[in-house]
Amino acid sequence: MLTAIAESKAVIERAKILPQQELKLRRQALIRITHSSTAIEGNDLGISQVEALLARKKIDAPQRDIYEVQNYLRALKYIEEIVRAKQPITEKVLLNIHKLVTSRTISGEQCGHYRKNRVYVVRRRPGSPDEIMYTGPEADKVPELCKNLLGWIAESEKKEINPIIVAGVAHQEIAVIHPFADGNGRTARALATLILYKRGYDFRHLFALEDYYNRDRQSYYKAIDIGENYEKRRTDFTPWLEYFVKGFKEEIDSVRNTIAALSHRKINKNIGSQVFLSKEQMGVLDLLDQIGKITVKDVMDILKCPKRTAQLHLQKLKKLGMIKQIEKGPASAYVAK
């Protein structure tokens, strides 16, 4: 399965599709990732509501559900920033991810901090006592366990362990350690995404592995289950990794089929040059697609580049007919053409 995924990765990376098509697919993937990762935790927002929040529109829904979706979108944006800056995955990064996914939904002393007490995963049973499904390790062990995990993630890159396996193990280990009072699942899935993106397995940001989990949550819970408590946990991760890789392959096969269908369509010769945009230029268009209008400073911020470089990217996109300038002088900005 890993070999098949690698083959699809090469096909997806080489495929030539129009930037407008790619932006649409990216936006759809971002919406699906956020919807499914929060839905698994009990968030009731529909995919159209998640799409509205991405577009910064107001929706009529419980405030906590809105916060959870907005939080996850911010966490994914933070992941992009870490990848662009080529920062290592440190304890600070892990805690920041948790802080972002739980902001305004749990207390300040818990948000972005390891738990202080023993944690239990319970199954709610209306009319009956809750059933304890898993008991995490003692709280005082959590910092060391997370340090060991992050050390292994860093070492795995030197040992050239397949990034999909690394992401799967990291996902499972966060579930095992349960480092936080709440938000462990979202943090685990976001961390796995960061590892994949950072190791070049981003597949043009067109996939949403979380959809696979959300389609059959019972299979997800069963696969990630490691026993009743940390002390007597199952240490063989093979069943989980088989599930994880199988789901990854299914999602990437779907992306490959979509890309293949689009790349085989005839493209107007007059706009053929628009197909060949750099990752940086695609990033500029991605930002523009989200906020509707951008400035040179926006491009400098998102690409972490000098003013002159940002101006060159904008001029290239303007020349290709992708954007147009509005206003002049200090108030100048750009919108989609």
- The CATH architecture of the largest domain is Orthogonal Bundle
- Global outline: globular
Strand content: 5-15%
Largest sheet: 2 strands, antiparallel
Question: For this structure, what is the CATH homologous superfamily of the largest domain?
Answer: Fido-like domain
Can you tell me the residue ranges where pLDDT is under 50 for at least 5 consecutive residues? none
Cα radius of gyration in angstroms: 21 Å
Q: N-to-C SSE series?
A: HHHHHEEHHHHHHHHHEE
Q: DSSP helix count?
A: 14
Multimerization status: single chain
Number of E strands: 4
How many domain modules? Answer: 2
| CATH topological fold name of the largest domain | Fic-like fold
Q: What structural class is derived from the secondary structure elements?
A: mainly alpha
Amino- and carboxy-terminal Cα gap: 42 Å
Strand order of the largest sheet: 1-2
Overall mean pLDDT: 92
Q: Give the fraction of residues assigned to helices.
A: 55-70%
Which CATH top level class of the largest domain fits?
A: Mainly Alpha
